[in-house]
Amino acid sequence: xxxxxxxxxxxxxxxxxxxxxGYGLNGLNLIPNTALSSCDTVVTVSFWAQSAANNAGQxxxxxxVISGTNFVPSQFSFQILWGDGTSxxxxxxxxxxxxxxxxxxxxxxxxxSPGTYSIVTYILxxxxxxxxxxxxxxxxxSCSLPVYSMFQVDCDNNGTIDSTLNNVSIPLIxxxxxxxxxxxxxxxxxxxxxxxxxxxxxxxxPAWLSANNYVIGNVQGPQSIxxxxxxxxMIYTLNCGNGGGGNxxxxxxxxxxxxxxxxxxxxxxGDIYMVNAPIQVNYGNGNAIVYTNASGNYSAxxxxxxxxxxxxxxxxxxxxxxxxxxxxxxxxxxNTPCQGGLPPANASFPILCGPNPGSPNCFSGYVFCDAxxxxxxxxxxxxxAFVPIVLTGAPxxxxxxxxxxxxxxxxxxxxxxxISNTNYAVATISQQYLANNGYTTNTQxxxxxxxxxxxxxxxxxAINCGGNGAxxxxxxxxxTPWIGYYQNTVAHVRLNWGNYGPLAPGTYTLTFNxxxxxxxxxxxxxTPGYVINGNTITWNLxxxxxxxxxxxxxxxxxxxxxxxxxxxxxxxxxAATGNFQDCNAQxxxxxxxxxxxxxxxxxxxxxxxxxxxxxxxxxxxxDIDVNLTDALTYTVRFQNTGTAPAQNxxxxxxxxxxxxxxxxxxxxxxxxxxxxxxxxxxxxxxxNGIWLADSASNEPASHGYLIYKISENVGxxxxxxxxxxxxxxxxxxxxxxxxxxxxxNVLVWGIDENETEMGRVYPNPTxxxxxxxxNGGFAFSLYDxxxxxxxxxxxxxxxxxxxxxxxxxxxxxxxTQGSKSKTFKITKL
Length: 829
Prior knowledge:
Blueprint (H helix, E strand, L loop, with lengths): L1 H14 L8 E7 L6 E2 L3 E8 L6 H4 L2 E8 L4 E8 L5 E8 L13 E3 L4 E11 L4 E11 L2 E11 L9 E2 L6 E6 L2 E6 L4 E7 L3 E6 L1 H6 L2 E7 L4 E2 L5 E9 L8 E11 L12 E2 L4 E6 L2 E6 L5 E8 L4 E6 L1 H7 L2 E2 L3 E5 L10 E2 L2 E4 L9 E8 L18 E6 L8 E5 L5 E5 L7 E6 L1 H7 L7 E5 L8 E6 L8 E2 L1 E7 L7 E11 L6 E8 L5 E2 L9 E4 L2 E8 L4 E11 L8 E10 L4 E2 L6 E7 L8 E5 L1 H6 L7 E3 L5 E9 L9 E6 L10 E5 L4 E6 L2 E6 L15 E9 L9 E10 L5 E11 L12 E4 L6 E15 L5 E14 L6 E9 L2 E9 L1
Parallel strand pairs: 2-9, 3-4, 10-18, 19-27, 19-28, 29-35, 36-45, 48-56
Antiparallel strand pairs: 1-4, 3-7, 5-6, 5-8, 8-9, 10-11, 10-14, 12-13, 12-15, 15-17, 16-18, 19-20, 19-23, 21-22, 21-24, 24-26, 25-28, 29-32, 30-31, 30-33, 31-52, 33-34, 37-38, 38-43, 39-42, 39-44, 40-43, 41-42, 44-46, 47-49, 49-54, 50-53, 50-55, 51-54, 52-53, 55-56, 57-58, 58-59, 58-60, 60-61
C-alpha cells in the first residue's frame, strides 16, 4: 500500500509541471516552533493558505500552511494517514489567504494508546491536479509533571520541626495510571517528563526512607496530580522510624472508575462514572474487594506496613462482561496510613466504553438456505444452525478484536458488546464452514447496524445450499470425559451427538466403541434401541428435527490390574442412512483418550487426534507423526464448585505457534458461546449469561465444556512440540489454570513381524530389563510421558536398559541408526 501511495504522489507531482492553471501548490509546512508532541492522545489539524493566524499554534496541534503560486479561490482534497492503520479524507475550499480552510468534520484523531506515530498529509488542488505532501513523527501521551518538594524532619513526631533537608538529592516515585516513574530531586525540584496522561501520586522512595531511618509522617499538597496540569508543590514531614518494620497498621486507598470518553486519562466533562465496578487490593498475604458507588468512587482499608506497596486492580472479568477495555487495569500504590495525617493513596481507572457506555451495541442476523436465490429469508427456507460468523469493526475506524458468534437452531446469531468505536460492524461467514459443507454464497460480507433503543437490525446471509436449498443434513458426534479414569473404578464417559441441519436426518446410525477389557453398565444407557456387539454399542435412530443436540452419560467398569499410563480410547461415529446425504463429514467421528490413573480435576484440558486411533500406530498419546499434518481436538471442561450459580464464564486459551490458526474450528459447546480473537493466537471463549448451577445445588447441571479442532502447521520438524493451557474465569474470581497438554512430532513406525528381521526390542511389557538387539552401531533414548530424557546412550549390536527403578507405566523408546529413527511404546509392569 505504501508503494502505491508513493507512486500516486510522484505521478501527481509530475502533472503539476505542465498543469499550472490557477493556484499551483508547491509547499506544505507546519508553522514555526510547532511542538511535535502532546500530553493527550488527541491530535487536531488545520490548514491555511499562504499564511496562518498568530494563534494557530495555540488552537491546533498541527497547523499547516499551504504555499503555492498564483493564488485564486480553490477547492482541495485532503487525505491524512494517521500512522495507526487508519486514515481520513476531507474536501474543502478557501477564497482568501491567511484564514483557516473550513472542513467538516474538522480533522481530529484520537489514538488508541500513547506512542509516536508517523502522520502523512496529502493535499490535491482538484482544478489543476497539483499536490503537496508532508510527513511528521508525532508523539501523543507524552506529558510533563514538575514537582517542587520541601522535606522537613520532626524526628519524635511532637509537632516541632527539628530540621529541613535542603539541597539533598532525594529519590521520588510517581505512581498512577498503571505506570511507575522515578526521579531524584536537585535543589528540591524534579520535572517528570515523557509520562502518560492521567492522575498520579508522588512520594519518597521507600528504599531511601528505610536506608535513612525515616517514615513519612505527614504530606501537604494535592492528593493526586494530573499530568500536564502544571507544577505541584509537596511538603513532606519525616519522622524518625524503623524504616518499614513493625506491625501492620490500617492503610487507605481511594479512586474513581469512569468511561474516559475523551481519552485524556483523567475525569473531565462528558466522562461517565461507572457504578459497581469491582476493585481488588492485594497487600502482603491478603486482599480486599470493594465496589464503586453511584459516583464511580471507591475506598478501601486494609492492614499493611509503612513504606511498602500494594497492588490495586480493576477486575478484568467485569470489563469483559461489559465489552469494555482499558489502557491499564493494574496500578501500584505506596501504603498510606489511614490515621497518619496523609491523604489516602489514589488509584483511578479510566476505561474505554465505546460509543454507548453502559449499553453496548447488539449486532444480529440470520443464516439460511436461500432456495429461490432472492436474498431474503422466507417461509419454507431452511435455517442453518451453528454457523460461525466473524464480526469486525468497519474499515478505517479504531477496531477492537474480532468476535466469532454461532447461529442457533433458527439460524439466528447475535452479539452484544464493543466491536469498534462506532455503531457498525462487518459480518463475514466462515469460508472453512462453507467449504466443509459444500456451500457457496454471493454474500461474502454483511454490514450490520448496532441496535438502538432495543430495536434490532438483522443482517441476512443467503447461502446456496444446492438444489432447492435444503438437500443435506449435518450430523455430528463427540466424546468427552466426565470425571477421572482409574483402574478398579466406575468411569463416566459422555457421548454427544446432534444435527446442525439444514434438513432433518431421518434415519441415522450412531456407534460407540469402548476399550477391550472394559465393561459397560447397560443400566446407565439412557438412549433406548441399542445393540451391543463386542465392544461396540450401536443405535439405529430417527429424527424429524432439523436441529438437535443429545448426550448420554454412560458408565464403564474399569478392571484392576491395569498398568498406570495405559491408554484407553473411546470413539464414536454417526452416519445418515436415509434419503439425504451428510453435508459435512468432518464432524462425523468423535474420539476420547483416557489414560489410566488420571487424577480428577473438574476444570481440565484434554487433547486427542482421531488419526492415532484409526491408524493403530504404536506411539504414545502425546506423539504425532512428523510425516502427517495432524488435526488436534481439544476439550476444555469446567465445573462450578462454588456455592452460587456462575453468571458469566470465559476461558482464555493461547494457541501454540506450531498450530495453523486458519484451521481453528469449534466442534461443540455445552452452552451458547462466542469466541473473541485477541490476536497473536489468543482466543477468549465467552459463556455470557450461562448461569451455571453450583455443584451443591445441582451437580449434573454444574458442568460445562467446549470442544474445538485445529491442525498443526504443515512441515513441523521432528521434535517440534505443541503445548496448550487454558485459564478459566468464573464471574469475577481469579483464573483457574488447567493442566498443560503436550504433543511432540516423532517419526513413528508400527511394530510388525518384518521388523524382527532388522532387530528386536524385548521383552515388552517388562518388569525389569529391556533388551535391544540391532546389527551395527545405533543410539537409543528413553523418555517418560512428559518428554523428559531418562536414559540416552550409543551402542553396537546390543544394549540393555535397566527399568527396575522406574514406576509402572508407559515410556517412549527412540532408536536411531544412520538416517533412520524408530519410536516404540514400552510398558513397565
